[in-house]
Amino acid sequence: MTSAPLAAVTGAEGFIGSHLTEALVASGHRVRAMAQYNSFSSYGWLETLPSDVLDQVEIVLGDVRDPGSVRGLLDGADCAYHLAALIAIPYSYQAPHSYVDTNVTGTLNVLEAVRALGTPRLVHTSTSETYGTARTVPITEDHPINTQSPYAASKAGGDRLADSYHASFGTPVVTLRPFNTFGPRQSMRAVIPTVIGQVAAGQRTITLGDLRPTRDFTFVEDTARAFLAVGTAAAEQVVGRTFNAGTGGEISVGDLVALIGKVMDAPLDVQEDSARLRPAASEVMRLVADATRLTTATGWRPASTLEEGLARTARWFTDPANLARYKTGIYNI
């Protein structure tokens, strides 16, 4: 009897990582999930997954900045999904060295482990922020890279390493570049949980940064399916390639707030907080994906509309047990 394939996931305790872990188990995988080592032995969002899911998950504490941790995680894996990263753009202005350590050196450690162990496939996570403000829309994978924050620069550095390992050593890496993912369990460092969290906590005056930028928002379950799609597709379709994952639609932050107010049946007054504004030259004003390459290669398409995803996210955040995990009254960077 053939055992289920083993998927190794870095960043599994996080927002997208925990949803990917669920999706992998649902698709018949065993999962070895790395949560960042901490003195509380916390497994992050993995602790909230149903017991029948966790029965198929081996959770290990480690750190992608440590080569030994990474090699132990990947040993024997059929596919590695590398999601571990520092992602908050405002904090990257304060701690750029940390972003390089995690997003560049951490990625190097994963690539080295894949190469040494002969892991059959690595799915590396990029970000639409590497494109910067759109020069042409929708954004294809051939759009120029224009990193407007230390976070974006660190992610682009990891991307370039992944490309170079495929070119130099034949490392079987595929890069997925999600646009703005949202949904249950997301950090308050992102705009949708910031708004929904404030509304769920009873606030009707919402404090935000710039309302003009537009984004392409993808529901987290669709993003998780995109990871699965490139992780399980035939190698000749995906290995050595970069794929956008997005809906092809865009909405401004201001219009997004209005839509959230509609979904949550709450009249909202929005106030701009200068502390939440990015430096002017660092703000990415427009992002909208062209995911044709991903659809052609794997058949992936988003299943949820923005309004459907917002409704599901709002229901999750308005559960008192979930909302209690968040600090809605402060600016989370």
UniProtKB/TrEMBL annotation:
GO terms for molecular function: carboxy-lyase activity; GDP-mannose 4,6-dehydratase activity. The keyword Lyase applies. Residues 9-312 form the NAD(P)-binding domain. Its EC number is 4.2.1.47. Keywords: Lyase. SUPFAM superfamilies: NAD(P)-binding Rossmann-fold domains. Gene3D superfamilies: NAD(P)-binding Rossmann-like Domain. It holds the Pfam family GDP_Man_Dehyd. The keyword DNA repair does not apply. InterPro entries: Arna-like_SDR_e (IPR045869), NAD(P)-bd_dom (IPR016040), NAD(P)-bd_dom_sf (IPR036291). PANTHER family: DTDP-D-GLUCOSE 4,6-DEHYDRATASE-RELATED. This is GDP-mannose 4,6-dehydratase. It comes from Streptomyces muensis. The lineage of its organism: Bacteria, Bacillati, Actinomycetota, Actinomycetes, Kitasatosporales.
